[in-house]
Write a structure and sequence with these properties.
six-stranded mixed β-sheet; two-stranded antiparallel ribbon; 23 helices
Length: 529
């Protein structure tokens, strides 16, 4: 492929992803809304601050609260470059930095695929698979971690593989500093990004044994740490200033969850090793088996797009000695085990595909390698015309993936429910609830609202919000009293301990029903905090 090919692919990618973002109109779900609203705080000069709480793991004392303590800041930073467009009656927010960054994914994919086969058509095929990947197009244009994870992960593996393949040890300090900086960028994208640094340091130990050069090992070690610290150092300084420790408090409590609702437990003190052990072996193993099965399904359906799985497996096997794929395999296996055995609830709810996105580009890039072996088999066993068969399958596979991507996008974004895009159903509900609360005199700009999706509510309504806690009505009342909540918005997707209350079988004088709307109820707290 030539520079013109890569430039053309990048331009096409920008246009496709920008069009997707325009049709989506808004962030659409909690993760993206979190990054969007914290990005707005950055732009307004408030720094990493949030007027909402979506969990209580770090024992928050009040609002506003420091942001990006559980979720890392990279997607928040990328969300700061946004513009609002209005064509006719349609208003859309375009996160420009996110779109421009996402458009790099097909280009990097094409470059890697071309490095495998040296065929221009293979580069274009892989690049288009990166642009029309099934589920991932939904997340290219909105504030999310998929994009930086894919881009930084691929670049790190490319650079690290080159250093491992060098015939002689060379200090190449700038390259090692860049590798350290990429480790920092990956850690600032997702918390488990710290694994990348551990992999790099493990590779340095390997190189140290191979070269028997202690000076080389120590020098490169220091340079990598320096590159990492240049990027992530300010985050550690902030943590020390705010909490007196390197990492935010409370995040380790997710190790001891017995069910997903406990992510929102209040108070979170009961999340401990002792209580986790008391669950018994049966429940602990059952959850991890569920996570194992869910993560396998995610690997096949999301990461492999179902159709591409056999070509990905074949391509990885045929290039199994390639350092890039070895490094990708080490990371992927580590993440699979981490999100299955250590953090099963996070893994089942998207944590696995988010974290594994760091090597996703290589999956698309090896598809042409697997396809090449398949068409050679057809040439030998079925007398196919090699080049003709290759071109037919290349076009066919890309066409099917474009169709599947379009179908998924249509179902999630363009399809309507009661006249509202499926992508915007929750946002539209929050707009209607806000208008009705203001109309009835139950809401002003300073009122704290307790709701399932605090970032989404804060983005739409602009008022402070806290998440509905796990722990039953007592926890709800305790949280409301502590943070001064005035309104409770509860829908059918609520903690199990509130089922009787939501269904009307358990009344309480501390709650006054204001109105019902579809599958949700809106209450006013009658007792003063």
């Amino acid at each position: 492929m030539t520079r013109k090919d890569f430039a053309l692919l990048y331009i096409i990618s920008v246009l496709v992803i920008a069009a997707a973002g325009y049709l989506q109109k808004s962030a659409g779900y909690m993760d993206a809304e979190y990054y969007a609203v914290t990005g707005k705080a950055l732009v307004s000069g408030r720094g990493f601050t949030q007027d909402f709480l979506w969990n209580y793991l770090d024992d928050p004392a009040s609002l506003p609260h420091p942001s990006n303590t559980y979720w890392m800041p990279m997607a928040t930073i990328l969300s700061t470059g946004s513009i609002s467009l209005q064509l006719g009656s349609q208003k859309s927010t375009l996160w420009v930095l996110q779109i421009l960054f996402s458009a790099l994914i097909p280009v990097i994919t094409a470059w890697i695929a071309f490095s495998f086969t040296a065929r221009r058509s293979d580069g274009w095929m892989a690049g288009l698979l990166g642009l029309f990947p099934g589920f991932y197009l939904l997340y290219y244009a909105v504030p999310e971690t998929f994009t930086p994870e894919m881009v930084f992960g691929a670049l790190l593996i490319i650079l690290l593989a080159r250093m491992l393949a060098a015939k002689r040890e060379k200090f190449r300090l700038l390259t090692w500093a860049g590798i350290g900086a990429l480790c920092g960028l990956l850690h600032m994208t997702r918390a488990e990004g710290l694994i990348w640094l551990l992999i790099v340091l493990g590779c340095l130990v390997f190189l140290g044994f191979r070269t028997r050069n202690l000076k080389y090992l120590l020098t490169t070690f220091l340079v990598v740490i320096f590159g990492y610290a240049i990027v992530s150092g300010a985050w550690y300084v902030r943590n020390v200033i705010l909490w007196g420790q390197l990492f935010p408090p409370g995040t380790s409590r997710t190790l001891w969850l017995s069910n997903y609702d406990q992510t929102f437990l209040f108070p979170p003190d009961s999340l401990s090793l002792k209580n986790w052990i008391n669950l018994g072996t049966g429940p602990i193993m059952r959850v991890r088996l569920d996570a194992l099965w869910m993560n396998i399904k995610s690997a096949i359906a999301v990461q492999g797009g179902i159709l591409l799985v056999p070509f990905i497996i074949a391509g990885c096997w045929l290039r199994k000695k390639d350092n890039r794929l070895i490094l990708a395999g080490i990371y992927y296996a580590t993440i699979f085990l981490l999100m299955t055995l250590v953090f099963p609830f996070a893994g089942m709810r998207g944590g696995f595909i988010h974290a594994a996105a760091g090597v996703q580009i290589f999956f698309w890039a090896v598809v042409p390698v697997g396809l090449d072996r398949f068409v050679h088999w057809g040439e030998q066993k079925r007398n196919w015309q090699l080049e003709q068969a290759r071109r037919v399958f290349q076009v066919g596979i890309v066409a099917i993936m474009i169709f599947l991507t379009g179908l998924i996008f249509y179902q999630r974004v363009l399809s309507m429910t009661s006249g509202t895009s499926n992508w915007l159903v929750d946002e539209n509900k929050y707009n209607l609830i806000q208008a009705k609360l203001i109309q009835t005199g139950n809401l002003n700009i300073n009122n704290v609202v307790m709701v399932k999706n605090p970032p989404g509510w804060n983005l739409v309504a602009g008022t402070p919000a806290i998440v509905i806690p796990d722990g039953g009505l007592d926890a709800v009342k305790s949280v409301a009293a502590k943070f001064g909540a005035k309104i409770l918005i509860i829908d059918k997707d609520h903690p199990q301990g509130l089922e009787l209350f939501f269904s009307g079988l358990e009344g309480n004088p501390d709650f006054e029903l204001i109105f019902n709307m579809d599958d949700l109820k809106v209450f006013r707290f009658t007792s003063e905090p």
